[in-house]
Amino acid sequence: MTQDARLAEMPDGWTRALAVVAHPDDLEYGGSGAIARWTDEGREVAYVLATRGEAGIDGMTPEEAGPLREREQVASAAVVGVHTVEFLDHADGMIEYGLPLRRDIAAAIRRHRPELVVMTNHHDTWPGGQWLNMADHRHVGQATLDAVRDAANRWVFRDLLDEGLEPWQGVRWVAVVASPEATHAVDITTTIDRAVDSLREHRAYLAGLGENAMADPDTFLREAAAETGKRFGGGLACAFELIPM
Question: I need a labelling partner for 106 at 20 to 30 A (CA). Which of 8, 119, 170, 236 fits?
Protein backbone atom coordinates (compact mmCIF):
# COMPACT_ATOMS: atom_id res chain seq x y z
CA MET A 1 0.00 0.00 0.00
CA THR A 2 1.30 3.46 -0.86
CA GLN A 3 1.90 6.00 1.89
CA ASP A 4 -1.10 8.10 0.81
CA ALA A 5 -3.62 5.26 0.28
CA ARG A 6 -6.77 5.26 2.39
CA LEU A 7 -6.66 3.05 5.48
CA ALA A 8 -9.40 0.54 6.25
CA GLU A 9 -11.16 0.06 9.60
CA MET A 10 -9.54 -2.46 11.91
CA PRO A 11 -11.69 -5.55 12.52
CA ASP A 12 -13.64 -5.55 15.77
CA GLY A 13 -14.70 -9.21 16.01
CA TRP A 14 -12.36 -10.07 18.87
CA THR A 15 -12.21 -9.82 22.68
CA ARG A 16 -8.57 -10.53 23.67
CA ALA A 17 -5.31 -9.05 22.42
CA LEU A 18 -1.67 -9.63 23.31
CA ALA A 19 0.93 -6.96 22.52
CA VAL A 20 4.49 -8.26 22.10
CA VAL A 21 7.32 -5.73 21.78
CA ALA A 22 11.04 -5.41 22.46
CA HIS A 23 11.26 -2.51 24.93
CA PRO A 24 9.38 -0.27 27.34
CA ASP A 25 7.99 2.71 25.33
CA ASP A 26 7.69 0.76 22.04
CA LEU A 27 3.89 0.58 22.27
CA GLU A 28 3.56 4.14 23.50
CA TYR A 29 5.13 5.54 20.33
CA GLY A 30 2.06 5.00 18.19
CA GLY A 31 -0.05 2.15 19.55
CA SER A 32 -1.38 3.13 22.97
CA GLY A 33 -4.19 5.37 21.68
CA ALA A 34 -5.76 2.37 19.96
CA ILE A 35 -5.18 0.18 23.02
CA ALA A 36 -6.96 2.75 25.21
CA ARG A 37 -9.94 2.68 22.89
CA TRP A 38 -10.03 -1.11 22.92
CA THR A 39 -9.93 -1.36 26.70
CA ASP A 40 -12.64 1.32 26.91
CA GLU A 41 -14.75 -0.99 24.75
CA GLY A 42 -14.28 -3.81 27.26
CA ARG A 43 -11.63 -5.78 25.39
CA GLU A 44 -8.77 -7.47 27.25
CA VAL A 45 -5.21 -6.46 26.37
CA ALA A 46 -1.98 -7.77 27.92
CA TYR A 47 1.61 -6.69 27.28
CA VAL A 48 4.69 -8.89 26.91
CA LEU A 49 8.09 -7.21 26.58
CA ALA A 50 11.19 -9.07 25.48
CA THR A 51 13.48 -6.83 27.58
CA ARG A 52 13.31 -4.40 30.49
CA GLY A 53 14.89 -1.63 28.40
CA GLU A 54 18.00 -1.66 30.55
CA ALA A 55 20.32 -0.44 27.77
CA GLY A 56 18.05 2.42 26.71
CA ILE A 57 19.35 5.36 28.77
CA ASP A 58 22.91 6.46 28.00
CA GLY A 59 23.46 8.23 31.32
CA MET A 60 22.21 5.36 33.49
CA THR A 61 23.69 1.91 34.04
CA PRO A 62 21.63 -1.10 33.00
CA GLU A 63 21.41 -2.15 36.65
CA GLU A 64 19.70 1.16 37.46
CA ALA A 65 17.72 1.55 34.25
CA GLY A 66 16.13 -1.90 34.06
CA PRO A 67 14.05 -1.76 37.26
CA LEU A 68 13.18 1.89 36.66
CA ARG A 69 11.99 1.33 33.11
CA GLU A 70 10.00 -1.70 34.23
CA ARG A 71 8.13 0.45 36.75
CA GLU A 72 7.57 3.16 34.16
CA GLN A 73 6.13 0.61 31.71
CA VAL A 74 3.72 -0.80 34.26
CA ALA A 75 2.51 2.71 35.09
CA SER A 76 2.28 3.60 31.41
CA ALA A 77 0.18 0.52 30.62
CA ALA A 78 -2.24 1.28 33.47
CA VAL A 79 -3.02 4.67 31.92
CA VAL A 80 -4.57 2.92 28.91
CA GLY A 81 -6.32 0.21 30.90
CA VAL A 82 -3.72 -2.58 30.67
CA HIS A 83 -2.91 -4.26 33.97
CA THR A 84 -1.02 -7.38 32.85
CA VAL A 85 2.58 -6.59 31.87
CA GLU A 86 5.19 -9.35 31.58
CA PHE A 87 8.94 -9.18 30.88
CA LEU A 88 10.87 -12.01 29.24
CA ASP A 89 14.35 -10.82 30.32
CA HIS A 90 16.14 -11.02 27.00
CA ALA A 91 19.14 -8.68 26.76
CA ASP A 92 18.26 -5.17 25.64
CA GLY A 93 20.15 -4.20 22.49
CA MET A 94 21.34 -7.77 21.93
CA ILE A 95 18.13 -9.71 21.18
CA GLU A 96 18.85 -12.62 18.90
CA TYR A 97 16.28 -14.15 16.62
CA GLY A 98 16.13 -17.85 17.39
CA LEU A 99 14.38 -20.70 19.12
CA PRO A 100 14.63 -19.35 22.71
CA LEU A 101 12.88 -16.12 21.71
CA ARG A 102 10.27 -17.94 19.63
CA ARG A 103 9.60 -20.33 22.51
CA ASP A 104 9.14 -17.54 25.05
CA ILE A 105 6.69 -15.68 22.82
CA ALA A 106 4.83 -18.87 21.86
CA ALA A 107 4.43 -19.63 25.57
CA ALA A 108 2.99 -16.15 26.14
CA ILE A 109 0.52 -16.62 23.30
CA ARG A 110 -0.59 -19.95 24.79
CA ARG A 111 -0.97 -18.34 28.24
CA HIS A 112 -3.03 -15.37 27.08
CA ARG A 113 -4.90 -16.99 24.15
CA PRO A 114 -5.41 -13.83 22.11
CA GLU A 115 -7.37 -13.41 18.91
CA LEU A 116 -5.33 -10.33 17.97
CA VAL A 117 -1.56 -10.04 18.41
CA VAL A 118 -0.09 -6.53 18.31
CA MET A 119 3.60 -5.89 17.65
CA THR A 120 5.89 -3.09 16.48
CA ASN A 121 7.49 -2.65 13.10
CA HIS A 122 9.61 -5.60 11.96
CA HIS A 123 10.61 -4.12 8.60
CA ASP A 124 14.06 -2.74 7.78
CA THR A 125 12.86 0.89 7.82
CA TRP A 126 10.19 3.08 9.41
CA PRO A 127 7.40 4.87 7.52
CA GLY A 128 9.00 7.22 5.02
CA GLY A 129 11.97 4.88 4.59
CA GLN A 130 14.62 7.26 5.86
CA TRP A 131 15.49 5.60 9.17
CA LEU A 132 16.96 2.13 9.68
CA ASN A 133 15.00 -0.01 12.12
CA MET A 134 17.07 -1.53 14.94
CA ALA A 135 17.76 -5.24 15.25
CA ASP A 136 15.78 -5.69 18.49
CA HIS A 137 12.56 -4.55 16.79
CA ARG A 138 13.16 -6.63 13.69
CA HIS A 139 14.07 -9.78 15.60
CA VAL A 140 11.17 -9.60 18.08
CA GLY A 141 8.74 -8.84 15.27
CA GLN A 142 9.86 -11.75 13.13
CA ALA A 143 9.92 -14.08 16.13
CA THR A 144 6.38 -12.99 17.04
CA LEU A 145 5.07 -13.82 13.57
CA ASP A 146 6.71 -17.23 13.76
CA ALA A 147 5.59 -17.80 17.36
CA VAL A 148 1.95 -17.39 16.37
CA ARG A 149 2.35 -20.53 14.30
CA ASP A 150 4.51 -22.21 16.93
CA ALA A 151 1.82 -21.61 19.55
CA ALA A 152 -0.69 -23.41 17.37
CA ASN A 153 1.44 -26.52 16.77
CA ARG A 154 1.35 -29.19 19.48
CA TRP A 155 4.61 -30.71 18.29
CA VAL A 156 6.68 -27.52 18.37
CA PHE A 157 8.17 -26.72 21.81
CA ARG A 158 6.67 -29.87 23.29
CA ASP A 159 7.99 -28.94 26.73
CA LEU A 160 5.30 -26.27 26.90
CA LEU A 161 2.76 -29.07 27.20
CA ASP A 162 4.51 -30.17 30.40
CA GLU A 163 3.88 -26.65 31.73
CA GLY A 164 0.17 -26.99 31.02
CA LEU A 165 0.27 -24.71 27.99
CA GLU A 166 -1.96 -26.30 25.39
CA PRO A 167 -1.74 -25.16 21.75
CA TRP A 168 -3.64 -22.01 20.81
CA GLN A 169 -4.90 -21.73 17.25
CA GLY A 170 -7.15 -18.74 17.85
CA VAL A 171 -4.94 -15.88 16.61
CA ARG A 172 -6.80 -14.37 13.66
CA TRP A 173 -4.67 -11.31 12.95
CA VAL A 174 -1.33 -9.71 13.73
CA ALA A 175 -1.41 -5.90 13.80
CA VAL A 176 1.92 -4.10 13.27
CA VAL A 177 2.34 -0.63 14.81
CA ALA A 178 4.46 1.98 12.98
CA SER A 179 4.77 -0.16 9.85
CA PRO A 180 5.79 1.40 6.52
CA GLU A 181 3.15 -0.87 4.97
CA ALA A 182 0.11 0.23 6.99
CA THR A 183 -3.27 -0.99 5.77
CA HIS A 184 -5.74 -0.29 8.60
CA ALA A 185 -6.37 2.25 11.34
CA VAL A 186 -8.26 3.03 14.54
CA ASP A 187 -9.76 6.44 15.33
CA ILE A 188 -8.11 7.70 18.54
CA THR A 189 -9.62 11.17 18.70
CA THR A 190 -11.19 10.41 22.08
CA THR A 191 -8.14 8.63 23.51
CA ILE A 192 -5.20 10.75 22.29
CA ASP A 193 -4.90 12.48 25.67
CA ARG A 194 -4.41 9.13 27.41
CA ALA A 195 -1.93 8.06 24.73
CA VAL A 196 0.12 11.17 25.50
CA ASP A 197 -0.15 10.61 29.25
CA SER A 198 0.88 6.99 28.79
CA LEU A 199 4.06 7.98 26.98
CA ARG A 200 4.78 10.65 29.60
CA GLU A 201 5.03 7.91 32.23
CA HIS A 202 8.39 7.00 30.66
CA ARG A 203 9.92 9.98 32.44
CA ALA A 204 13.49 8.76 32.78
CA TYR A 205 13.64 7.60 29.18
CA LEU A 206 12.21 10.86 27.84
CA ALA A 207 14.63 12.89 29.95
CA GLY A 208 17.49 10.90 28.46
CA LEU A 209 16.46 11.87 24.93
CA GLY A 210 17.44 15.49 25.48
CA GLU A 211 16.42 17.72 22.55
CA ASN A 212 15.24 14.84 20.35
CA ALA A 213 11.77 15.46 18.89
CA MET A 214 10.61 12.16 20.38
CA ALA A 215 11.09 13.65 23.86
CA ASP A 216 7.91 15.76 23.45
CA PRO A 217 5.04 13.26 23.72
CA ASP A 218 2.25 15.76 23.05
CA THR A 219 3.65 17.16 19.82
CA PHE A 220 5.09 13.89 18.54
CA LEU A 221 1.95 11.79 19.03
CA ARG A 222 -0.59 14.42 17.97
CA GLU A 223 1.26 15.25 14.76
CA ALA A 224 1.63 11.58 13.87
CA ALA A 225 -2.05 10.87 14.63
CA ALA A 226 -3.18 13.85 12.57
CA GLU A 227 -1.06 12.73 9.63
CA THR A 228 -2.53 9.22 9.83
CA GLY A 229 -6.01 10.71 10.15
CA LYS A 230 -5.67 12.27 6.70
CA ARG A 231 -5.80 8.72 5.33
CA PHE A 232 -8.68 7.71 7.58
CA GLY A 233 -11.44 10.25 7.13
CA GLY A 234 -9.95 13.05 9.22
CA GLY A 235 -9.54 13.31 12.97
CA LEU A 236 -6.75 11.49 14.78
CA ALA A 237 -5.85 7.89 14.04
CA CYS A 238 -3.39 5.08 14.76
CA ALA A 239 -2.26 2.99 11.80
CA PHE A 240 -1.49 -0.73 11.62
CA GLU A 241 -0.33 -3.21 9.03
CA LEU A 242 -2.88 -5.99 9.44
CA ILE A 243 -1.67 -9.51 8.68
CA PRO A 244 -4.35 -12.24 8.56
CA MET A 245 -3.23 -15.52 10.14
Answer: 8
Sorted by sequence, the CB contacts under 8 Å of residue 125 that are 6+ apart come out as: 131, 132, 133, 180
Domain that holds residue 193: 8-244
Interatomic CA distance for residues 38 and 48, integer angstroms = 17
Q: Residue 230 contacts by C-beta under 8 Å, 6 or more apart in sequence?
A: none
How many structural domains does the chain have? 1
Q: Return the axis-axis angle of helices 192-200 and 62-79, rounded to nearest 10°.
A: 160
pLDDT of the chain, 245 residues: tens digit per residue:
456 689 999 999 999 999 999 999 999 999 999 999 999 999 999 999 999 999 999 999 999 999 999 999 999 999 999 999 999 999 999 999 999 999 999 999 999 999 999 999 999 999 988 789 999 999 999 999 999 999 999 999 999 999 999 999 999 999 999 999 999 999 999 999 999 999 999 999 999 999 898 999 999 999 999 999 999 999 999 999 999 99
Residue 2 is assigned to a structural domain of this protein: no
Q: Which residues contact 164 (CB under 8 A, 6 or more apart)?
A: none
Pairing of strands 16-21, 237-244: unpaired
Going by C-alpha positions, the residue among 9, 6, 35 that lies closest to residue 20 is 35
CATH of the domain at 187: 3.40.50.10320
